[in-house]
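Listing S7. Sequence submitted for prediction.
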Amino acid sequence: MDPIIAVKDLDKIYASGLQALKGVSLEIRRGEIFALLGPNGAGKTTLIGVICGIVNPTSGTVLADGHDIVKDYRRARAKIGLVPQELSTDMFETVWATVNFSRGLFGKPKDPAHIEKVLRSLSLWDKRNSKIMTLSGGMKRRVLIAKALSHEPQILFLDEPTAGVDVELRRDMWEMVRSLRETGVTVILTTHYIEEAEEMADRIGIINKGQIVLCEDKATLMAKLGKKKLTLQLQEPLESVPESLSRFELELGAGGHELVYTFAKEDRSGIADLLRALAQASVAFKDLQTEQSSLEDIFVDLVRARA
């Protein structure tokens, strides 16, 4: 299946000389939720801006559902809905008027039934006649999503969609994004809440210093780069790790009262080998705990490695 977004050899150099994107190539699959992660200044916003036709690329190509974003701008842009991070919309308009107007900007004929469907799906129907200035921050963000969906795009960009909203609303918005995917919409989100990407995304892309440093299925990424940590609480403290245990690369903690073993998630035999070796070395423990690295741990490690 052809990707719905295809980015190839994309560069962006601003007039100041800053190179925000360096040879970015990326394919986003039709109907997936794709999370784009990266530290501040990594190039996330510039990349989204180029794909959405807001920022002109220096070189390279971008296809949106087969349409070149530069050569065939109108048709490419009609495929895309963008929810910006900033809460920028006409505060004196009603919810219905501003969403209906956004549809008209793309040359779409009036379709009250579609606008109603969008507003109902975002729990905005009861607010349709309210002026935007009277809404809460979370409701204003929902209005931005409604505006982005007004022209029935196949691709939806969410730039920090839950920034500044409470936990309950964030969960509601996660469910909304999943429901959009079920209707066939491809969703690309940037987020500083890495648990958001871990919860929702099918694939993860990490950008740093203007380059894509990793792009993987979430499950593959977690299995390949995720680590597990086994912490053994010892019955008697150790001054150092016995020589017979050196092959396990153990670390002492808690003043010698804990022994910490870090291993790859797919290494299923390591713990059994370690426990046998501990018994042979007469190292007794009274309790053990395991913990698994999160997507945040993987992200931080990758960014540090390429700093």
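Caption to Listing S7: primary sequence and predicted structure tokens for the chain studied. The chain has a mean pLDDT of 84. Residues 102 and 226 are 43 Å apart (CA to CA).
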